[in-house]
Amino acid sequence: MTGAKVPAAQNTLRILRFLASRKGPVAASSIATALELPRSSVYHLLAVMTEQGFVVHLPEERLYGLGIAAFELSSAYTRQDPMARLGEPLLRALVDAVGENAHLAVMHGRDVVYVVEERAPYKPSLVTNVGVRIPAHLTASGRSMLAGLPPAQVRALYPDRDSFASRWESTAITTPGQLRAELERTRERGWAVEEGDVTPNFASVAVAAHDHRGLPVAGVALTFLEHKTDDERRAELVGHVRRTAEALTRRLHGAVPGGGV
Predict the structure, then answer these.
(1) What CATH number corresponds to the domain at position 20?
(2) pLDDT, the chain, mean
(3) What stretches of the chain adopt beta strand conformation (E)?
(4) Does 165 share its domain with 243?
(5) How far is residue 141's CA from residue 241's CA, in Å, rounded to a whole number?
(6) What is the mean pLDDT of residues 112-140?
(7) Is the Cβ–Cβ distance between 112 and 129 less than 8 Å?
(8) Do 144 and 246 fall into the same domain?
(9) 157-209: per-residue pLDDT in tens?
(10) Distance between CA atoms of 50 and 55, rounded to whole angstroms?
(11) β strands within 141-215, DSSP E
(12) Taking burial as the number of CB atoms within 10 A of a residue's CB, which of 6, 54, 77, 178 is the most buried?
């Protein structure tokens, strides 16, 4: 059965694709105009998608953006073998170059899920492993991806203090305001960092890989003993991570922030 015979399904997908192509939330009237659909139909479809979590409604601004369910669908793709297969040789080369533990993670709701782990010889073991989930706001890889999302998406993921509750003991970030401040620092630096938020005495640096829209789909990170890594060494590690993330972005046919490919 073709899409023409199921117009509601076709228009639902058209709306989702349109929202995915925008840099931020848009008005329902803009959707109707761009897709040449009746406003009544657009409002009806948006209401259903909002109820199911695929769209988030921002009532004060009268705008609509992609919801958590849509984000989980996109991250589900990156958790499949293609992402691991593309990333694994790059992380292996990264570990060979710097001699530190590396991993590749993707977003799943408010968590990151680790899809590739490459261990360096004679380095301490870590709590992360393939398939492990950790709250994204605690990790460098999660922060690297959150910093590249539209602000409305971050607000939808972390609307209040309850969004930060977890079994992890860290209290580094416990409010939306603290998260916004950390993500702003991440954007200014161009890379993310966490220091002891996941495991005491360990720090991580991370840079996000991006898709064709320039949106973050994975975080490349190195983890190392904090007290044995001075500023010069940390800058060296950041450079290696950035080059690896850019290489993964190119493999994904993505857009490197700043206009590169």
Answers:
(1) 1.10.10.10
(2) 85
(3) 55-58, 63-66, 101-108, 111-118, 133-135, 192-195, 202-210, 216-225
(4) yes
(5) 11
(6) 79
(7) no
(8) yes
(9) 898 888 886 655 556 788 899 999 999 999 999 999 998 777 778 889 999 99
(10) 4
(11) 192-195, 202-210
(12) 54
